[in-house]
Amino acid sequence: MITMLKLTDRKWEAIPIIKIFDKLEAGKGKGLNHLIQVKQGIPYIGATNRNNGVMCYVEDNEISHKMIQDGNCIGFIKNGDGSAGYAIYKHKPFISTNDVIYGYADWLNLYTGLFFVTAQDMIEKKYSHGYKRNQQHLRGDKVMLPVTNAGKPDYKFMEDYIRELKKEKIDRYLKYLNKHVAKTEYQNIPAINEKKWKDFFLIDIFPEIKRGKRLKNEEHIAGSIPYVSSSALNNGIDDFVGNERKVRKYKNCLSLANSGSVGSCFYEPFEFIASDHVTHLQNDNFSMYTYLFIATMARRLSEKYNFNREISDTRIRREKILLPITDDETPDYAYMDQFIKNLMVEKYKQYSKKITSRHKARAGN
């Protein structure tokens, strides 16, 4: 049996941040007004630790190019909705809001960076909207880190620990992928463009369509139940709460954002609490695969709605989505089911190959 490195095997000390970073500089952006958002481009980093700070991607042009900053750094979040005091590690070049301060040092790499961020986040509780993190506060902050016998930060241990942890996670993930590939049967089916399609009312597809219930921020009780709202990220999860009264819980259904990121649609396999900014769509006869297919088609509703035109309870009853059909012109759920199964088998194999290749390459560095 391989002996794993343990955090308890090392001596830890509070290290001043200012002593281990060679340079601290704020992001160069002041908002997205003069930037062009694209699907693939330069990551734009906002004052959030969600999605590793990435808010969107912007075009690399004459204006934005001057704002690009080097990667391999730690971003210290100055303020933000629940993110003040947190940190992120950025591996590649990016553009950032000036609400994040970036630290550069020779000891930083992917592994030491991830270790440092986790240790640093233990001090985030001292910051809030009323007490923002600035350069002065940052220079006074200390982070608990493992140290060598000489009392210096043990960067080698940090790197070795994260490398080991990452390998263990990758091994588990590959087992998961291989397991699902083995139990998900690939079948030859007609291509999408070979199928006939037809519009169907949502109310004819889903026997249960119901909006969630408003839960104000100040009413949130800390807990472990996903709170799904109108976010286009992270399956719509906006928080984790413990509220049990005056809430609406659902599971194994679709969540459709009726405002905010209107039209965002996700399959929710777990029990969650729905805000009034999402509508749940449920059909107990649908499998996970059928739900995933329909979620993709339902997202097309975003093309006709926006922040000022929401999907009301009245409008959703008039909405239609396009679906593949059988010879008798009913929704071909069997086809949808197998189409997603085939897609997942292909993706599982791609992920497995890509992860194995990347891990071997990094292990050699």
Structure description:
- The protein is of the alpha+beta class.
- It has three domains: 10-155, Adenine-n6-DNA-methyltransferase TaqI, Chain A, domain 2 (Alpha-Beta Complex), CATH 3.90.220; 160-181 and 340-363; 192-338, Adenine-n6-DNA-methyltransferase TaqI, Chain A, domain 2, CATH 3.90.220.
- The protein contains nine helices and 20 strands.
- The chain has helices at residues 17-20, 62-65, 110-120, 135-140, 155-183, 202-205, 288-298, 313-316, 333-363; strands spanning 11-16, 23-26, 37-38, 42-45, 54-58, 73-77, 87-90, 95-96, 100-104, 142-147, 197-201, 208-211, 222-228, 237-241, 249-250, 253-257, 265-268, 272-274, 278-282, 320-324.
- It has a four-stranded antiparallel β-sheet with strand order 2-9-6-7. It has a four-stranded mixed β-sheet with strand order 3-5-4-8, with no helix packed on it.
- β4 (42-45) and β5 (54-58) form a beta hairpin.
- α3 packs across α5 (155-183), α5 packs antiparallel against α9 (333-363) and α7 (288-298) packs across α9.
- The radius of gyration is 24 Å and the shape is globular.
- The two termini are 24 Å apart.
- The mean pLDDT is 92.
User: Got a strand count?
Assistant: 20
Main pleated sheet: 4 strands, antiparallel
> Radius of gyration over alpha carbons?
24 Å
**Number of domains as seen in the coordinates:** 3
The CATH class assignment of the largest domain is Alpha Beta
| Spatial separation of the terminal alpha carbons | 24 Å
Q: Percent of residues in helical segments? A: 25-40%
Can you write the helix and strand succession as a string?
A: EHEEEEHEEEEHHEHEHEEEEEEEEHHEH
CATH T-level fold name of the largest domain? Adenine-n6-DNA-methyltransferase TaqI, Chain A, domain 2
Q: Can you tell me the overall shape?
A: globular
| Strand order across the largest sheet | 2-9-6-7
Low-confidence stretches: none
Give the number of helices. Answer: 9
Into which percentage range does the β-strand content fall? 15-25%
Mean pLDDT metric: 92
> What is the CATH architecture annotation of the largest domain?
Alpha-Beta Complex
CATH homologous group name of the largest domain: DNA methylase specificity domains
Provide the structure class: alpha+beta
Keywords: DNA-binding, Endonuclease, Hydrolase, Nuclease, Restriction system
GO molecular function: DNA binding; endonuclease activity
Organism: Parablautia intestinalis
Domain Type I restriction modification DNA specificity: 12-171, 195-347
